[in-house]
TrEMBL record:
Protein name: Erythromycin esterase family protein
Organism: Spirosoma taeanense
Gene Ontology terms describing biological process: response to antibiotic
Source organism, top-level taxon: Bacteria
CDD domains noted in UniProt: Ere-like
């Protein structure tokens, strides 16, 4: 990584939406704009991504936002922002449907504000130009099978419904517990792959006839793909033959590609995911472990001018996270960034929010490997000095970087301790 040509960064003060002009200029005519985050629970990461997305939609005609979320839950947001029949008019009711931990990633006031803005924007668009909101992730095995059951009832397709029943019966002994399924497959070498693959094949054959609502065919086929790849993902958890991370990120890119095809040859997409997914893995220590990610794969599959990767980071503040998987969410203090890290360097130089654009001229600061903070849904601030940093060549991992010196926790719907502090613009926009 360190022998790559050095790159120059241009730095711009970041105070308002108008200060994003240099980023819009850098994006140009790109069709893939991937927006990261250094945690899954920071208010400013959501609101700045929303500002960027709003401008791309209004000024550049972007087609949809795709996020690091489950397809069934995010499709409910898609139905809401496009005002599909039965979608309702209360975004809070839609977001309360997010039940998989960590619920706060999408069931929060920041997303409520964005969804309301998207719905108002779409009111003035013809059907083919309404901006969508979709989930890219692979986790929702059981939920996707349930959705398929409902779709096939509406379509009155008993033949395919029987295939869904076979899938349900195959998974039923594991009680919707992915780990139990993965352990059983590892021990018995028997899986439900045949059943989910047969279901996908049949749905793909018939999906074009599903017409009970707009995008019914897309919804059915995407849920079937989730079922197939989720089964493979969970099986890999206890297998040495496949890398579960690579299965997950490859699924997300495949889903993104299908969405682009669905939206036509002029489609443009905005992706919201953690930096670990959208920042090119080849310029981190992930590459040494044989791991790929969304940013790397999209760069490899598309023309260079068609892809812009935008990373995010901050020096200190607060964040929503859990202390272990499945733990209650809480607002935690994020201590000052570790000495020698990207964030500590930027803070020392100038403790203000700013936008960095990398343009290919020599710049020693960001052309060599430095630690770059990454906070997940599980976080323990007391371990800050021992973990939470990814060795990164910043100017190669991203095309641009938003540095936010002081940040604060996200506003989950069901965390009452800070629900009184609404994000800017709620409920009228972002």
């Amino acid at each position: 990584m360190t022998d790559q040509p050095q790159t120059q960064s241009q730095s711009f003060r970041l105070r308002s939406e108008a200060d994003l002009d240099p980023l819009l200029e850098r994006i140009g005519e790109a069709r893939y704009v991937l927006l990261g985050e250094a945690s899954h629970g920071t208010h400013e990461y959501y609101t700045w991504r929303a500002r960027i997305s709003k401008r791309l939609i209004e000024e550049r005609g972007f087609s949809f936002i795709a996020v690091e979320g489950d397809w069934p839950d995010c499709y409910a947001i898609n139905r809401f922002v496009k005002a599909y029949p039965g979608a309702g008019t209360d975004v809070m009711a839609v977001l309360q449907g997010f039940e998989r931990w960590p619920t706060w990633m999408w069931a929060n006031y920041e997303i409520a504000a964005l969804a309301n803005w998207l719905r108002r924007h779409n009111e003035h668009q013809p059907d083919g130009r309404k901006v969508g909101f979709y989930g890219l992730d692979v986790y929702s095995l059981w939920e996707s099978v349930e959705v398929l059951n409902e779709v096939l009832k509406q379509q009155q397709d008993p033949q395919t419904a029987r295939l869904v029943d076979e899938v349900v019966q195959c998974f039923q002994p594991y009680g919707e517990d992915e780990r139990r399924y993965a352990q059983a497959v590892a021990q018995l070498s028997e899986s439900c792959r045949r059943e989910v693959t047969a279901l996908l094949s049949e749905i793909r054959r018939k999906a074009s006839s599903y017409d009970h609502e707009p995008e019914a065919a897309l919804n059915a086929e995407m849920n079937a793909w989730v079922a197939v790849n989720a089964e493979r993902y969970y099986e890999s958890m206890y297998s040495y033959e496949e890398n579960s991370w690579n299965i997950r990120d490859t699924h997300m890119v495949e889903t993104l590609n299908r969405l682009m095809t669905h939206h036509g040859p002029d489609a443009k997409c905005i992706v919201w995911e953690h930096n670990t997914h959208i920042g090119d893995a080849r310029y981190t220590d992930m590459a040494q472990e044989g791991m790929v990610n969304v940013g790397q794969l999209v760069r490899q599959q598309q023309a260079p001018d068609d892809v812009v990767l935008v990373g995010f980071g901050s020096y200190q503040g607060s964040v929503i996270a859990g202390r272990h998987w499945g733990a209650s969410m809480e607002s935690m203090t994020v201590p000052p960034a570790r000495s020698g890290s990207v964030e500590a360097l930027l803070h020392r130089e100038q403790a203000t929010d700013r936008l960095l654009i990398f343009d290919g001229q020599p710049d020693e600061r960001f052309s060599k490997e430095r630690g770059h903070r990454a906070i997940g849904v599980v976080y323990r601030p007391e371990r800050e000095q021992y973990g939470n940093y990814v060795p990164t060549v910043l100017a190669r991992r991203y095309d641009a970087f938003l540095y936010l010196d002081q940040t604060r926790a996200l506003h989950p719907l069901d965390l009452h301790t800070n629900a009184g502090l609404m994000p800017e613009g709620y409920p009228f926009g972002v």
